[in-house]
Structure of Calpain catalytic domain-containing protein:
Amino acid sequence: MLNSLLYLLPLLGLGLTVIPLGSASPIDSGMSATEQIVKRDDHPLWLLQPKPVDILADKFKDDWLLAAAAALANTYPEKIQVLFSNVTDTKSETDNVDETMVKVWNNEEWQKWNNLPDDQKGGGPSSKEHKVVYSNITADYSGANQYWWIAALENAFIQEGGYDGITSNGFVKGDPHIALKMMTGLSAKLYNANNTQKNDLWYELRKSARRPTCVKIQWPEDADNDNENLWNAVLRVEPKGEYGTVYMFNSKIASEAAIEFEDLVEGIKYYVHQEEP
């Protein structure tokens, strides 16, 4: 946890408040989050619905996927739920799911479909289901508690591939707009914040409670350190005066963080949002 908190140190002097999410904390701090999942008897996909609090990064370098999943779970958790089929009741903490089929869209195929003339697009891009088995979830996979939907989603992404950020063994650097496309089949875009006026950026972040939104924060002192330049989900903002407070979810520590927009804005280098529903 100490190493994870170091990621937020540049923000602490700027009035950032880390808001712990108690149910996300591993029971045994000497064991990785997902190793605990594997060792538990209970393994439902989610409790009532997927939540950002279920997400804690482990060994994969997929902050881009985790940020997108947290943003989607924050705005439209039902869009994650419909990706899972052959699943019985998952509303109870004891409704275990041993295997499931997870639907995802292939990024390369999505791009081909998107480039078609409108009269040839038909009912939308095609998707594919992948079988995910709980016993195959190893300590590499992400998870903050016994709810394993995020690990199942990672496994389905690895099976699908079709993007440079996904390898046969896991993940490398990527961007959340690709993950949002693969989870929803809908358009999402990546923007360079350096080309966005301050007022326009605040306007975009204000939509985060109803539109999946992610930001990549890069402070000047960390420009050459990829480990410190991670994607975060924007959960909501609270207007106050001209701007206000931005609440983000950080998958590295499975916690919500609050910071004033005027302190945060210089650190935002890129942002992603799903198109309007």
Q: What stands out?
A: The chain has one domain: 2-274. The first strand starts at residue 17 and ends at 19. The longest helix spans residues 63-75. Residues 2-274 form one domain.
